[in-house]
Structures are given as C-alpha cells and as structure tokens.
Amino acid sequence: MTSPCGKCGMARDRRKPDPCLGKIPGARGACCGHGQPAEEDGLPYILLDLDESHRRPGEYGKPVLMIEFPVDMDPAIMRSVGTAVSIALALAPTAKT
After folding, report:
1. For position 97, what pLDDT does the model report?
2. Domain that residue 40 falls in
3. Residue 20 class from Cβ within 10 Å (0-12 exposed, 13-18 middle, 19+ buried)?
4. C-alpha angle 9/11/5, rounded to 5°?
5. Deepest of 4, 37, 38, 82, by most Cβ within 10 A of its Cβ?
C-alpha cells in the first residue's frame, strides 16, 4: 500500500524503508512522521535492534531502543542521529546489571 509522504511528497510503502530516511544501519524500523500531527500517528521514530548483551535481567524478546523525535524534525538529522546511535551501540562495551 502506497501513499505520498506529507514531508517530501515521495510515495511510501510500509514494506520498504521510509523514503525520507532511507535505510538506517541497525534499524528495525523508522518513520519520518510523514508531516502528520502526533495524534494521527505522525510521531517520527527510529527503532534500533540491540545486541543480546543489552538485555536486562528478566527481559524477554529481542532488545530494542526506540528514539522518538519532534514532529517537525528534519529527516536528515533523524537519519544522522539514528546512524550515530547505532554505531555507538555497536562499539560500546556492555555491562550486565
């Protein structure tokens, strides 16, 4: 199912990377918000998969980190932040608590 993005006007497909953001390393999913108000599911986010070593005691399932952004955030900044956080997580040592 495709519909135009309210920010860039490009066709978007929920089965493919967001056209404004493109592919973000380590991201399970991402959305620029498509120019929609937050109350209409227009909240921009990046969902990153975490390494199993980030799992806290008692947690189940694949660990993830969700980064939420302001509705009017520039997609280029979102992409840069998501990439930087993904790289930092991959390089950072983890400690079990």
Report:
1. 44
2. 2-91
3. buried
4. 45
5. 82
String of b and e for 54-91 (b: at least 16 CB within 10 Å)? beeeeeeeeeebebebeeeeebeebbeebbebbeebee
Task: Examine residue 97 and state whether it is found in any structural domain, yes or no.
Answer: no
The pTM of the full predicted model, rounded to 2 decimals, is 0.71
- In a domain? residue 96: no
What are the 10-residue block averages of pLDDT along the chain, 97 residues in total? 70 79 85 72 80 63 81 87 86 60
Q: How many CA atoms lie within 13 A of 44 on its CB side?
A: 23
Q: Which residues pair with 45 in a beta bridge?
A: 31, 68
Is 18 a domain residue?
yes
- Cα distance between residue 30 and residue 24, in whole Å: 8
When divided into structural domains, the chain yields a total of 1
Asked if residues 71 and 37 have their Cβ atoms less than 8 Å apart, the reply is yes
- Closest-CA residue to 47 (of 77, 33, 20, 68): 68
